[in-house]
Amino acid sequence: MVRTYSPVDTVAHPHPELQRAARDAILGRVRGLRAILPFVGPAFIACIAYIDPGNFATNIQGGAEFGYALLWVILLANLMAMLIQGLSAKLGIATGMNLAELCRAHFAPWVNYGLWISQEVTAMATDLAEVLGAAIGISLLTGLPMFVSALITGILVFVILAIQGNGFRQLEVFIGGCAGVIAACYLVETFLAKPNWGQVAFHSVVPSLPGRDALLLAVGIIGATVMPHVIYLHSSLTQRRVVPATDEEARRISAFNKVDVVLAMGLAGLVNMAMLFMAAKVFHYTGHADVADINTAYKTLTPLLGGLSALVFGISLVASGISSSHVGTMAGQVVMQGFVNFRIPVWFRRFATLLPALAAIYVGLDPTRTLVISQVVLSFTLPMPVITLILFTRNRAIMGKLVNHPVVTALAITCAVLILALNVLLLYQTFGGPLPKFG
User: Fold this and answer.
1) pLDDT, tens digit, for every residue of 229-276?
2) For residue 289, with 0-12 CB atoms within 10 Å meaning exposed, 13-18 middle and 19 or more buried, which class applies?
């Protein structure tokens, strides 16, 4: 297998100590947890986008309106995310290029420009959701106006950019720590809410779409869970992180990265399910099914579960918004450099993507409704990165020994078909088509 390398440096290289530790693991000099640790990080950066404020909005609305009924959608979306992010990580390891760079190498320029523009729209929709979510959290916790809270969010994300300048491993630790904070917050919420575990288990595996609005939320949940921009980013995070010298080393690195993906995406899936079943137990089954926005959820939690519940909810929202916003900025850089080989200062991109969120707040758009719609936008831009990822990872000339097994390709194609089918159904419903009620 011949690895090719792009001249575009989209991500920082890890610390030399990490390289040495990874090399010891590859050569079998260390085993167990010590062998896995050097490879943990890329998937945790990716997973923060899977528990961003868009997930808060869709999961709270889904749980409050439909109870536990949409838990199966979250489980399905998370399994899809685990598969897709695993393929993305493997692509970077096998080729030394990220998904956007491979598109530029294999597709006509007009195709690449079209893909680039669609993903820039995705980046704007993503950042809108993340900045809005963090601003809502800061506003709820401090009482500051939303516009001021959004400005604070922007400043905090610029601070995180400085952390990246001090080394990429520090950024991995910081974002992984944010994921841990969010998970801890929802562990507390679960303890306080005491959900019906029998119903949680049943609805996690039995599909149902009760009501005309359930499909819109189901597509929104998938759009908020399987994130297009992170598919590009994940391949960039692994493309030169640890460079294999042989096919056997590439297989070992890929195996270690599978552990990273399972741990990170498993954590994200549990958090998303906790968001929904907490909203189901606290709101839907207590006569508060009309709680359809984050502000109302925060204010309703205090009388129902106490001030601690509202506090940890707000903290988790801020941690989610700020960290995922930075991940979106990183992904935007990867997409632009990969597709059109053009680079802009990261601070300029951060400022440009912040403006739509500030404008949305300034004109008074409903924050939670805007979050939900932004996630539906993401679901429409998702098929292309998934399709191109499948095309490349099933190609032995590109992937070498890490080419997909036919069963993996079949599962990935099933994911792509399901995403396309849900989007067609959503369009059908949007233009007035009647939908059957399932379950």
Assistant:
1) 889 999 999 988 888 888 888 899 999 999 999 999 999 899 889 889
2) middle
* DSSP codes joined into one string, 157-200: HHHHHHHHHT-HHHHHHHHHHHHHHHHHHHHHHHHHH---HHHH
Q: Which residues of the chain have pLDDT under 50?
A: 1-10, 12, 438-439
Q: Cβ distance 222 to 309 under 8 Å?
A: no
Three-class SS of residue 405? coil
**What are the residue ranges spanned by the domains of the chain?**
41-430
Is residue 397 within 8 A of residue 323, CB to CB? The reply is no
* Span between the terminal Cα atoms of the chain, in Å: 50
Please report the sign of the dihedral spanned by the C-alpha atoms of residue 260, residue 98, residue 387, residue 115: positive
Contact 342, 336 (CB under 8 A): yes
User: Taking the CA atoms of the chain, what radius of gyration do you get in angstroms?
Assistant: 21
The one-letter code for the residue type at 28 is G
Chain centre distance of CA 341: 24
Q: Region of 306 please: left (phi>0), alpha (psi -120 to 50) or beta.
A: left
Integer Cα distance of 143 and 145 in angstroms: 7
- Spatial distance between the Cα atoms of 254 and 122, rounded to a whole number of angstroms: 28
Tell me if 130 sits within 8 A of 352, measured CB to CB. no
80-90 confidence digits (pLDDT tens): 889 999 999 99
HSE-up of residue 62 (Cα within 13 Å, Cβ side): 33
Tell which residue, 44, 401, 33, has the closest CA to residue 238. Answer: 44
| 31 Cβ contact list (under 8 Å, min separation 6) | none
| Per-position DSSP letters for 35-97, written without gaps between them | HHGGG-SHHHHHHGGGGSHHHHHHHHHHHHHHTTTTHHHHHHHHHHHHHHHHHHHHHHHHHSS
Instruction: Return d(Cα 433, Cα 425) in angstroms, integer.
Output: 9
Top-level class of domain 41-430: mainly alpha
